[in-house]
Amino acid sequence: MKLTLNIWRQTDANDAGAMHTYQVDDVSPDMSFLEMLDVLNEDLNAKDEEPIAFDSDCREGICGMCSLMINGEPHGPEVTTTCQLHMRSFKDGDTITIEPWRASAFPVLKDLCVDRSAFDRIIQAGGYISVNTGSAPEAHSVPVPRDDAMRAFNVATCIGCGACVAACPNGSASLFMGAKITHLGELPQGQPERDSRVTNMVAQHDHEGFGGCTNIGECAAACPKEIPLDVISQLNKDLRTAIKHGH
Amino acid sequence: MAIQNSGPTLVQGARATQSTIFLKILMAASGAVFIAFVLLHMYGNLKAFNGHDAYNEYAEHLRELGTPMLPHSGALWIIRAVLILSLVVHVYCAATLWKRAKKARTVRYQVKKHTGAIFASRMMRWGGVTLLLFIIWHLLNFTIGKVNVTGGATNDPYNLVVDSFSTWWLTVIYLVAMAMLGAHLHHGIWSATQTLGLTNSDRTRKLAKNSAFTLAVVIAGGFSLVPIFVLAGVINK
Ligand code: HEM
Ligand code: SF4
Ligand code: FES
Questions:
Q1: What per-residue string of b and e applies to B107-126 under the rule 16 or more CB within 10 Å gives b?
Q2: How far apart are CA A171 and CA B213, in angstroms?
Q3: A4 — phi, psi (to 5°)?
Q4: Contact assessment for residue A122 and residue A204, using Cβ atoms and an 8 Å cutoff
Q5: Is A158 near ligand 2, meaning CB less than 6 Å away?
Q6: Is A101 on the interface with B (CB under 8 A)?
Q7: What is the complex's ipTM, to 2 decimals?
Q8: Which residue intervals define the domain 4Fe-4S ferredoxin-type in the entry (chain A) (predicted)?
Q9: pLDDT at B6 over 70
Q10: Residues of A in Cβ contact (< 8 Å) with B195
Q11: What is the pLDDT of residues A114-159, one digit of tens each?
C-alpha cells in the first residue's frame, strides 16, 4: 500500500508545531499502525531527519501507553488500541491525519507524545484502601456478589490511555474517573474510603484543567476497552452521596 | 503511565460542592424544574382548542390558585420566582462549564469525527442561548410587554394568541424555537438522569434515552399544535 501521512511535528513543549506531510510506500496490510510508523522512522533516520516521536510500550493492547488521533478518531477507526490497529483497516492511496491527544491537561511533550501524568495524580488523589497487609486472606472470607464482581472486573480493564479525554468535546476525563470509581466502589474493600476517594479524585480532575462532562458519549465510543457510559452515572451518584455525607 | 513532570500538585482540602459535577447537578435540578414547567405550560396551552372562554378561564384560574390562603396571583408569583431562580442557576452553570470546556482544549484538532454523539448533544450550548433569547421575546410577547403584532388589543389572552399566530412569521419563530426546545430536551432529559446518577446500567441508560426522546417529542409537538392550528384557521376568534 502507498499512503500519505499528515503528521503533527513539534520539537518540544514550547514549540508552536505544525502538520508535515510524508509519503510511505511498501506498507503491508498486516503491519500494525505503529510498525508502519516504525518503517517511516527508519526512513527518516536513513535520511538524517529527526524521527517522529510517539508513545508505545507493550504493543499488546494492555498497557495504555500508545495514543494517536487517527483521522479524527482516538486509536483510529477500530475499537482497539493503536498498537493493535492494523493497516488492513486502511486502503491503498489513503491520506491519514495523525495528531496528538489534544487537552490542556495533556500537554504535548514532542510530536505525538503527550504528558498524561495528570491521570497519575487523579489516581494518587484517590488515595489508599483499608485492607490488612501480610499473608493473603482466605478468598472466601469476603464474599462479593457475582454481578458486582463482574462490573468491577469489566471496568478495571481501563488502561488509562486517555482516548476518552482526546475524544471528549469538553476535554473531560469523566469516563476514566468513572471507571476507577466504579471499580473500587463495587467491591467491599473500596467502601471505607468511598466518599473521600470520589471527592478527592474529582477535585484533582478539575484542578488539572479537564473539562466538565455533558454526557455526549464520544468517550465511550472511543474507548478501546469499551468502558460503558454508566460509569459516569456511577461517578455522579458517588459524588452526590459524598455531598450528602458532608464532603 | 506517563512521564513525571513538575506539573500541578495534589489538591488539599477538596470539597465535593466545589466540583464541576456539582455544577452539573445544579443544572440537572434546575433543568428538572423547567421540564415540569414546560409540561404544565403545554397542557395549559392546549386549552386553546376548547375555545375563547375555556382558555381565558384557565388563565384566570392560574391567578386564583391557592386563594384565599394566598393573595390573588400569589401562587403564580411563587412559581415565577422558582423559575427565575432556576434560570439564573442554569445559565450561570452553563456559562461556567462552557468557559471551562474552552480552556480544557485550546488547540483544536485538524480532523475530528464525532462518533457516538447525537446532533442535539452538541447543540446544547448554542441551543440554550437560542432558548434564552426566545424566552425573553416570549415574555415580552405574552407576559410583560404584551405585544400584539397585528396592532389589536392585548388585554384578552385568547385573542392575543390568535392574533399572534395568525401572523405567519411569528408562527415560524415559535416553531423554530420548539424544534430547539425539543433538541435541548432530547439530550437534556437523558443527561439529567445521568448527572443525577440514575442510569447505572445499560438497561436504565436505554430507558432514559428513549424516555427523553419521547418526552421531547411530546412537549415540542404539543406546544407546536396551537400555533399551527391558529395559522391554519382552525383555532379562531
Ligand atoms: C425551557 C428552557 C430550558 C430547559 C427545559 C432546559 C433543560 C435542560 C436540562 C434538563 C438539561 C440537562 C442537565 C444535565 O445535563 O444534567 C440542560 C442542560 C443544559 N442546558 Fe438547558 N434548559 C433550558 C434552558 C436553557 C437555557 C436558556 C440555556 C442557556 C444558556 C441552557 C443551556 C444548557 C446547557 C449548556 C446544558 C448542558 C448541556 C448538557 O448537560 O449536555 N438551557 N438543560
Ligand atoms: S476509559 Fe477507556 S479511553 Fe478512557 S482511559 Fe480508560 S481505557 Fe482509555
Ligand atoms: S502499546 Fe500498550 S496498549 Fe498500545
A1: eebeebbbebbbebbbbbee
A2: 26
A3: -105, 125
A4: yes
A5: yes
A6: no
A7: 0.93
A8: 149-178
A9: no
A10: 215, 236
A11: 999 999 999 999 999 988 888 888 888 889 999 999 999 999 999 9
Mean per-residue pLDDT, B160-181: 95
Q: Do B196 and A240 touch (CB under 8 A)?
A: yes
Q: Where are the domains of chain A?
A: 3-110, 116-129+144-244
Ligand 2 contacts CB of residue A160 (under 6 A): yes
**Residue contact B16–A215, C-beta within 8 A:** no
User: 10 Å Cβ neighbour count for B50?
Assistant: 12
Query: Rounded to two decimals, what is the model's pTM?
Result: 0.93
Computed on alpha carbons and rounded to an integer, the radius of gyration of chain B in Å comes to 22
Say which of A71, A171, A233 has its CB closest to residue B101: A171
**Ligand nearest to the Cα of A161, by number:** 2
- Hey, whose CA ends up nearest to atom 7 of ligand 2? A158
Which CATH superfamily hosts domain A3-110?
A: Beta-grasp domain (3.10.20.30)
Furthest-apart CA pair in chain B: how many Å?
74
Instruction: Tell me the average pLDDT across A165-178.
Output: 98
Name the residue facing B109 among A64, A69, A210 (closest C-beta). Answer: A69
* Residues B111, A97 contacting (CB under 8 angstroms): yes
Cell numbers of A235, please?
461517578
* CATH fold for the domain made of A116-129+144-244: Fumarate Reductase Iron-sulfur Protein; Chain B, domain 2 (1.10.1060)
Name the average pLDDT for chain B. 93
pLDDT at B7: 58
Residue B3 has pLDDT above 50, yes or no: no
Cα-based distances in Å from B192 to A237, B204, B208:
12, 13, 9
Q: Do A109 and B3 touch (CB under 8 A)?
A: yes
